[in-house]
Specification:
Blueprint: H1 13-23, H2 33-55, H3 71-83, H4 85-96, H5 103-119, H6 124-127, H7 136-139, H8 148-175, H9 178-186, H10 188-208, H11 226-252, H12 260-295, H13 304-330, H14 333-357, H15 373-394, H16 405-427
Length: 446
Amino acid sequence: MNGTTPAAQISSLRDFILFMRGELKPKGKMLTPFNLISGPIILVGAALILYRFFAGLGSVVHNSSEYPWGIWIGFIVMVGVAFAGGAYVTAFIVYVLRGEKYHSIVRMAVLNGFLAYVFYAGAILLDLGRWWNIANPLIGNRFGVNSVLFLVAWHFLLYMIAQLVEISPAFAEWLGFKKARKFLTSLTLGAVIIGITLSTLHQSGLGALFLMAKWKIHPLWYTEFIPLLFFVSSIFAGLSVVIFIGTVSFRCFDKDRIDEGYRRAWDDIVIDLGKACAITMFVYFLLQFLIFVHGRHWSLLNTGMGYWYLAEMVGLLLLPGLLFSWGVKSGNPAPIRIAAILTMIGVIINRVDYSIIAYKWYLPLRERYIPTIMEVVITLAIVFTMVWVFRWIVNRVPILKKPPQWAIEQEQEEQSPARVTALAPQLGLTMADGGNSIDKGNTISL
């Protein structure tokens, strides 16, 4: 959106409807390879979702009393929430630590996080046998305050609201709502602080769910520190997703959708994000090593599950950590991008290990959980739909481009009083003397 957009002249419901009719039109080619592949999957997935609601959960999934969670929880929710970690990390860097260098990517990260929670956490609805009871944690007659799921449910809802507040100024800029943007911007810092608090709790809270399954999870994966491991891994998982999405976005979206200054600064930002990933991954690796040594599970390494554990720890944790370090040291973003992809694969496997692969590993293969083709199609449909929505928003809303001129001027007006207040002691000004210089006695006009 720029200063000449029709949104700036919206003054009535009719103007809004006309504007939205124009915005709903495609902004690019429709017959692309991605659209031709993902489009039919989304349509089939939507039909299967309707079938699941009408025919029941058992008509679609392969879950059982032995495996109550399938890929909708083990993959979509567990992995999706970890991948959304880039939102709270970048928001913390930009809004709390005042890292203005990374302001160009914070909206992209928050938008990805918000959509991840809407779509991936929303997949919980599909996995509930009595899905109409999903509101019980909020309005139920008896709240399960001692339940980890009760904590996670409330955190999911509150965090989605916080992220919506964080990203809402961009939509106000798109629609030309100046007063609404000013009000929503004033809420951003508070929403960020609340969101960070909620994220640190429910990222670890998802790990806490597995503490109740000590005898069902392989000893190489089970530890009382699972919540801590889930939280730390969400940091480098989320940042890796930001690197991946940013790289794809800067290459796929048209020039008028992305600010050229943002594009030029992207490689330097990738290197900084790679440094943060490297540090957190080595911290995570050290934690895993200490847990392994303390558990004295050396004999388990020479087993099938032991080899799988080593492949995860070395190939999908230590190796990408070294690639991140190499890219940072050499100032080359290419190894960092490769490491980000490996890290994403590693986090996917790690979360699936806890919920499916390492869960009741002792059962014979014929009794293990294997997702049905309908589960897989619905999962792909959810992921592809999120990508379509993300693309639609970026093509219209100022996510990867600078705000319109009126929004920039509005920010400058809001920052001016704060800057004068911050510089007052240096200028020799006090509130008591009405703005007179203590040193020279001259009046400074503010």
